[in-house]
Amino acid sequence: MRLRIENLEVKYGNVRVLKGLNIRVEQGEIVTILGANGAGKSTTLMTVSGLVKPSGGGVYLDDVPLHKLEAHHIVNLGLAQVPEGRRVFGTLTVLENLRLGAYTTVDKALVGRNLGWVFEMFPILNRRSGQLAGTLSGGEQQMLAIGRGLMANPKILLLDEPSLGLAPILVKSIFSTIKAINRSGVTIVLVEQNARLALKLADRGYVLETGRIVLEDKAEALLANPEVQNAYLGGMH
Amino acid sequence: MAPDKGKVMQLFLEQLTNGLAVGGIYALIALGYTMVYGVLKLINFAHGDLFTIGAYLGLTLLLSLGLTGHIGSAAGILVLILMVMGLVAVIGALLERAAYRPLRTSPRLSAVVSALGASIFFQNAIMLIYGARFRVYPHDLLPVTAISLFGLTIPVMRIVLFGASIVMMTGLYLFVQRTRTGTAIRAAAIDQGAARLMGIDVNRVIMYVFLIGPALGGAAGMMVGLYYGQINFTMGWVYGLKAFTAAILGGIGNIPGAMLGGLLLGVIESLGATYISLAWKDAISFIVLILILIVRPTGILGERVADKV
Amino acid sequence: MKHGIIVNSLIVVVLLAAPIWLNAYWVDVLNSIGLYAVLALSLNVILGYAGLFHMGHAAFFAIGAYTTAILNTQFGIPVLWLMPLSGIAAGLFALIVARPIIHLRGDYLLIVTIGIVEIVRIALVNNIFGITGGPNGIFGISRPNLLGYVIRTPHDFYYLIFAFTAVTVFLFHRLENSRFGRALNYIREDETAAEGSGIDTAHYKLVAFVLGAFWAGMAGMIFASKMTIVSPQSFTFWESVIMFTIVILGGSGNIRGVLLGAFLIIGLPEVFREFAAARMLVFGAAMVLMMIFRPKGILPPLSRTYKLKTNAG
Amino acid sequence: MSKHTLLSLSDLTKSFGGVLAVSEVSFEVHQGSIVGLIGPNGAGKTTVFNLITGNYLPDRGSIFFDGRDISGMRTNMIVSLGIARTFQTIRLFQNMSALENVLAGCHCRMRSGIFGAMLRLPWQKHEEREAIDIAAGELEFVGLDSNPDMAARNFSYGNQRLLEIARALATRPKFLILDEPAGGMNDHETRSLVRIISQIRDRGITVLLIEHDMNLVMKVCEELVVLDHGIMIARGTPEGIQKDQSVIEAYLGPPGNDEDEDF
After folding, report:
1. pTM of the entire structure?
2. Could you report the per-residue pLDDT of B103-126, keeping only the tens digit for each?
3. CA–CA dist A160, A46 (Å, integer)
4. Does B306 touch chain D if contact means CB atoms closer than 8 Å?
5. Which of B181, C48, C120, C176: disulfide with C253, CB 3.0–4.6 Å?
6. pLDDT band at D72 (very low <50, low <70, confident <90, very high)
7. How many CB atoms lie within 10 A of CB D64?
8. Per the CB < 8 Å rule, is A90 touching B194?
9. Which residue of B has its CA nearest to D90?
10. Which domains does chain A have, with CATH numbers?
11. Does the pLDDT at position A235 exceed 80?
């Protein structure tokens, strides 16, 4: 399965947020999208998931035009997203949150297997399964959000800033989990501000600046590229 | 002189049970407000009129079927209530499609005005069809008996009414808590965007909400007809406003809150009418509402939400 | 600009001359339109300019009308003297009730203001303080006496109401284009940004309520002296809905829109009186359709322009 | 350049639902300087701004402005004392004209009320005239004087940010707080923003800004304060901060030896 973003343009009112984006993601890859705040990273993921409709260009999963589908159909095709800020359902229990992740899955046995898998990956969620999601700590909520995304049994998982607001030790464990998820055959699209970590994890990366792609390369190459650091900390004078 | 303690107690219990019966009706209507508000953040002003429609449809069906005899009636009435619920549910879903869905992305005031318009439309439609005068429910359908409990006489009708509302509320609660669709409704009320990322068709969820709420409201309408015996085309305003108060009292958007708020309001009103002033009965609920909103704007079971700047 | 002045003057002339050809019935319809126009304009300060969802305006109207009725029948004070007093009574009432609820947002404010209008009505029905006359209300209110001339017929009242409406339009137009009017608009557009620009939003919201109530109270005086009787039925929640609808359908925040709204909503049902039964049905449906197809009302407010200094460079 | 302290924060602490957003942050801003507040997403920068401007109440700590304790004061009071701000997510009065948006800033320096509006006495007309001139002047200052009557929503993203700055300047501030002024701007717009910020300082207005565009921050700021997870982790000159290991880690993640980094 291959995800293609072609000449994607998105407008919020009169403001052009994405100005002709091209990104492709091959099966089994980890691709990271980097960039400063407001560059359009989250908008890109939201457009792929169908929550934002593009004003031009399109998103294709193999040959299926995702931008013509409703969000709930896109999930059904095997594309799940872990949104920025986690957005767990705070007044629902952990288990209910996870089951909602599998909302489109009819096969009950499969849901059970996925639940087992998620609990294996995040044992803490099993222990807290009856607790309201809003009462979890930030790191636990992030695990829940990822677990909820996995419950959809996705072939492609979009992750939006999974490290946001987490202590470094937790970030590391979340990132190892992402690697493990990828090894189990799930393609990963990772939006991150923690560029170094993201590039160490990813196969390839794109750097976004105000709605355009300014760099695109293999992860190692980007890691060595001083321009990436510039995008975050500014160039040395 | 010591007051007659027995009489005092009896009056209190009498009013308490009356309050619970009326409160059950408020709660059933309040559920419709709270569910719609939860998902759409809209006060469905027309909900009170769906309740009225329930009362009038119930009357029409009762008269056209010509039920007689107590036993046959009891079963018949049950069937009729289910029919009324189904019909009002369909009207509710149509209302959503026609008056609210086109305004989903508009400012909230537009939707509120549209709701008011829909309410005026329904009220006048009922008046055109049934006339402006009070209509009377057939009163010989159910046995007009009362049972004695610890020296207290309670009309059977009151118990049946209270029981029916409890059954319906429990059913709804289980549906919302236990089923996949129910969880989807709760999720959509918390965060529509995240719900869509889960693959939930939010439009469908909203349709469910507009089927369930009006169904319960319609049932409540018929129950009022059976309990009080007479109905009027404007009764939806009064009941609707009180039920909405109940929903806020419990914490709007919160389903158990609406049930609690409804019962509480019924009891407060009934006791207030007895011990404070009957004439001020209809004002009590509004005074409670204002006090609640000043002291605790999110209601009893509602949660505080911080404003983001 | 010139064109606008000609059209406006023409409308004024036609309105001034209208009673000459109209019978008492139609003049009375125009009087209703005028009164509702004033009420809706005063509501427009709160709902249109400041964007506060207020559906209890009939309560302020009632306080004004009853102040006139009580003071006139009990103490024999001439009704025209009572005009400012009725306004002040309504304004004070607004100050007291609005203060604790002013911070409530949108829908909550809406439902509380509905509550207030119902509480006021029930209080009137219950003959609160023994001075409101209960469900029957108060009758025998005297007619306005203007320098010895008693205003009595619909035609007389027409000119009184017309004058009051004209003054209202003139003053509110000035209000709209002032520091005060802009402050309310800023609050409507974005309260946080308004506060962040140095505007005391709580103060202005309260002042909007008090001013709107003051004006509704004065309109209440005219209503009381025109009817010579006031009773709770005249101040139901339904009256509030009508005022609210005039503002929203006509064009919230725009004086012309509100005036047009008053003509359409009060006048049209009279024109279609033979379809009496169905007209409210159509009215309800029209509200829904308006919100779908023209949500800002028939005449939404025009943006204001300012003359800048013309110094080149 | 005087070393007078205009703003001083001490031990400022704020938590939301048990999560510390800002923890014991203390720093001063000297009159006439341009200070940058930087840090990764979620570091608590905007919360600091909201505490200064009275949008949030601090749990602990104090905020002194011009020798006055302003913690717990209402926002509009703080503005009239001389602190103005812009917002991270643009908060203009979208349906009102550019000039009217800027006039909002003039509001707190005007006096006329309801009666003034209705009577229109000469001094009130004069005041209104003056306010319009000031607003027009600020529009010109940020380079938006060509379309004063256009509704704010029709301006480009970058120009909307400039319009917010003009509105803030119209309050006649001593101290200006800019929350991501370059967010969504293109290179050209950012360059003119840099010029505008320097000109603002030249007018004697002290500037504190949050910005993710580090080129801009390094260019205009004389001093930087770095937050991470609500804690101040560094403070110093731009050159020093760029070399500060803890800052680099906060942004790019901990270094670690490339080989044994295995997820």
Report:
1. 0.87
2. 988 888 888 889 989 999 999 999
3. 10
4. yes
5. C48
6. confident
7. 16
8. no
9. B309
10. 1-78+156-162+189-237 (3.40.50.300)
11. no
